[in-house]
Amino acid sequence: MTLSERIGIDLRRRNIAVTDCGGRENLADYARFCAQLGIRYLAVMDGDAETPAAQKNARAAREAVSHCGGGELFEFPHTLEATFGVTKQKPSQVPGKIEELPFADKMPDPTKAPAEVVKLAEAIRSLAG
Amino acid sequence: MRITSLSGKNLLSFDDFTLTLPNRVTFAVGPNGAGKSNTARLLTVSQRAIEAGDGSSREVARQLAAFLQARHVGSTSSGIEVRVGVQLTDPVEQALMTEFIRAMVTGALVGNQPVENLTWIDAWADAEITTAKLQPLMEGEIVTRHLGTEDGQWLCAYEFTAPSHDGVSRRYRWSLLGSLSGTIVDADAPVSAHGVTGGVTVVQQYTGSPNPPKDPVVPVPGSFKLLTLLPGPRANQAIIGCTFSLSQYLSASQRRFAQITGLPLNLPGGGRPVGLAAVPRIILRRALVHTSDLRLLPGGGTSWSSSDLAPVNEAEARLPEFLMLLKNGDPAERARYRRVQALFMEFTQGRGCEVRLMQVPQTAQDGQPLPPSQVPAVWVTVSARDDAVVVPEVPIEFAGVGAWEALVLASALAEPAASVVVLDEPAVALHPSLQRQLGAYLLGAPAQFLVITHSAELLPLTNAAEVQLVRFDRDDKNATHARAVEEACRRKMAPKLKAKGNERLPFARRAIPCEARTT
User: Fold this and answer.
1) For A85, B148, B196, B427, which has the most beta carbons within 10 A of its beta carbon?
2) Which residues in chain B have their CB less than 8 angstroms from residue A39's CB?
3) What are the start-end ranges of the E strands in A3-116?
4) What is the ipTM metric for this complex?
5) Angle CA B236–B241–B243, to nearest 5
């Protein structure tokens, strides 16, 4: 199950496109493209950039969002998988973890769910409007 | 012709809107009600005003009545303004503009009288009034305005920029419609509500006398300069009477202009003055094709008789009848008919179409029964091409809605002089593969296209030049606004969107671009 489903937002019905950008290096271009078209966006990025190239791409994404406006950047402290306590090699386990999260009033329970998941859920809700 | 921009103020969904069209193909996307089709309607406003130019104000008011009622709710001003930026790119269009200026100037020189040295005047006009000298007139804006008051009138003008008397480029307004019709003023020093007080006629500019010459021999002017036709920058200065009459004594350029435009010659009293409106009117009729003009369902054949063979204009003729005219027309029209067939085959991937005259039972009218008889009706039939199976022709209304859509598109795109084509949701009834076929065709065709679409299949995610992607939406004042993607960004993103299957992103209301996984 996806986080948006759990918070009761049907992304498809609301015409919110979730796009796989194919790597951190493309995130800045996607943000710029959305901003130029006036499509409000929430860019989602892992915070595990270690190599100089990865750090450069992360910086470019931050700068693009900040410079172009029209959207926000959500950055996991480390990785999506780490947030849910699974290894990076097993992202397929994340939906199961989302399903196990304690929810209250269609939002992750802030006392039990990881803080970044609560923040992401709030950001998605805000984006959906 | 190229359309360079479309602007609308206080009209339809527009508060203060401008869309620039720097590229040959513009794809307009955005949600329903955003104002995409309204953008094409700005062209309709201009075209209707131009059609009525030099005509009666009552006819203009009738033609544009609906637009006066459709003022933008919440707009701060009551006046309506529509601007259509145009560029006369075709040599035929430039020649028409040049011929108008020659006809106007020679008309002023000669007056409505027999002149012994008319051949010299004609030779002077042909040699001196050239397209090269008139270049500033080849690009401008058709401006249609209404004050928005109940007693207000529609005004229409052609605005262009030209070097002024002090050498600085200034914007000039040549009125085409309204009480100042045929007047050129400095657009930034407009005439007051009291009208033109410093008006100088074209005759006066060339002869020094406000009245047409009376001598049988007219002095041949020196070098022609466009500046002679432009007023000074002071308020209320104007060049007036920038028209000509198709009188009994015509110059060569007046004859040529009448021939090109189809204006009648030798009307009693010289007929109505011919104004500049005739130039954009002919150019727009020739160059602009809007598929909504052709989108008329056939509905069981169209009753037809020889008296219907003279429609007011092509857009008003129903499509089957129009195709019948082409099929039985002159060689150029027959070639155009074959082009419609070829494009139909291309868009439908191998199906053929034919327009035929068939006999159908006459229908009763006004409840009055008629004796049983057969009347001719125009039918469009569609055939499939299949070597193995003989597939009979069927009337187009039984061939699927897509076949009709393809016929509308083929008819619009087969117009050889069409240099600006507006396709309003052309993909509605087409299969995705046909949409892609159409999208690819648009990229290769020579005309300028404004394509309004909700289809990702039609949107060619290509890094080809000459393509613009614009997204329409409403702002916080509920007014239409449009955002274009920068050329570099579009070219960079096209392959990226395609590679990851994100072609629908330009149609999204919101987006969540993720680094990689989309859990």
Assistant:
1) B427
2) 471, 505-506, 508-511
3) 16-20, 40-45, 71-75, 103-104, 107-108
4) 0.95
5) 140
Number of inter-chain CB pairs under 8 A, A vs B: 130
Q: Is A94 on the interface with B (CB under 8 A)?
A: yes
- Indicate the domain borders of chain A: 3-128
Q: Where do the domains of chain B lie?
A: 88-276
Q: Shortest Cα distance from B47 to chain A (angstroms)? A: 30
Which residues of chain A are within 8 Å of residue B489 when distances are taken between CB atoms? Answer: 29, 32-33, 36
- B162, B136 contact by CB (below 8 A): yes
Chain B residues with CB under 8 Å of A86 CB are none
For residue A41, list chain B residues with Cβ-Cβ distance below 8 A.
510-513
B485 touches chain A (CB under 8 A): yes
Beta carbons of B500 and A17 less than 8 Å apart? no
Three-state secondary structure of B232-290: CCCCCEEEECCCECCCCCCCHHHHHHHHHHCCCCCCHHHCCCECCCHHHHHHHHHHEEE
CA distance B360 to B219: 67
Q: Distances from the Cα of B230 to the Cαs of A67, A120, B161, B167, B193, in angstroms?
A: 47, 64, 11, 12, 21
Could you tell me how many helices (H) and strands (E) chain B has, helices first? 14, 20
**pLDDT by position in tens, chain B (length 519):** 999 999 999 999 999 999 999 999 999 999 999 999 999 999 989 988 888 766 666 777 877 888 888 888 877 778 899 999 999 999 999 999 999 999 999 999 888 788 889 999 999 999 999 999 999 999 999 999 998 887 788 899 999 999 998 889 999 999 998 888 899 998 887 666 556 666 888 888 887 877 777 788 888 888 999 999 998 767 678 888 899 888 778 899 999 998 888 887 766 655 678 899 999 999 998 888 887 665 554 444 444 333 333 333 444 447 888 888 899 999 989 999 999 999 999 888 888 899 888 777 766 666 666 666 777 777 788 887 655 565 678 888 788 788 888 888 898 888 877 889 999 888 888 888 889 888 888 988 889 999 999 999 888 777 677 899 999 999 988 999 999 999 999 999 999 999 999 999 999 999 999 987 655
Q: For residue B353, what are the CA distances in angstroms to B314, B380, B407?
A: 20, 7, 8
